[in-house]
Amino acid sequence: MKSTRRMFLGTAAAFTSATALSSFVSKPEKPMLAHHVFFWLKNPASSNDRAKLIEGLRTLQKIETVRQIHIGIPADTEKRSVIDASYSVSELIFFDSIGGQNIYQEHPIHKKFVENCSSLWQKVVVYDSMDF
Questions:
Q1: Which of 14, 85, 120, 123 has the most crowded Cβ, counting Cβ within 10 A?
Q2: What is the DSSP string of 23-88?
Q3: How far apart are CA 35 and CA 105, in angstroms?
């Protein structure tokens, strides 16, 4: 009786985990474009410059085609050869389409962000990817 109960509980736990994982990694209902930007500050030790850049990045969430935004700094994770934590700040923005990203690029809020904050960074790298 105990082994049957253990098998049932084990099977139920595995099924629950698989269901949760499949909903986490499932594709969205429609394709999305991920726009990931990495910024290297001219003065990486300046907390004021970093705060000003982050404040500027937060204004971008007001653009109507931005579906989701994440602004971050390098995580203090384990140092491994595949991790590049040399950047100062990153932003990850999701759009419904390339058209939405194009609107964002030309939007007055984005242009004002670049105008106000471009003096802070020495390098920017952008990775755009589309669901397949």
A1: 120
A2: HHHSPPSS--EEEEEEEEESSTT-HHHHHHHHHHHHGGGGSTT--EEEEE----PPP-TT-----S
A3: 11
Q: Are 52 and 117 in contact (CB under 8 A)?
A: yes
CATH number at residue 100: 3.30.70.100
CA distance 130 to 132: 6
The Cβ-side half-sphere exposure at 112, using a 13 Å CA radius, reads: 10
pLDDT digits (tens, 9 = 90+) for 67-122: 999 999 999 999 999 999 999 999 999 999 999 999 999 999 999 999 999 999 99
Strand order in the sheet with 68-72: 68-72, 89-95, 33-41, 121-130
- Alpha carbon of 75 to those of 24, 43, 79, 98: distances in Å? 22, 19, 10, 29
Count structural domains, the chain: 1
Asked whether residue 16 is assigned to any structural domain, the reply reads no
Q: Which tens digit of pLDDT belongs to each residue from 23-49? A: 455 555 777 999 999 999 999 999 999
Element (H, E) at 16: helix 2-25
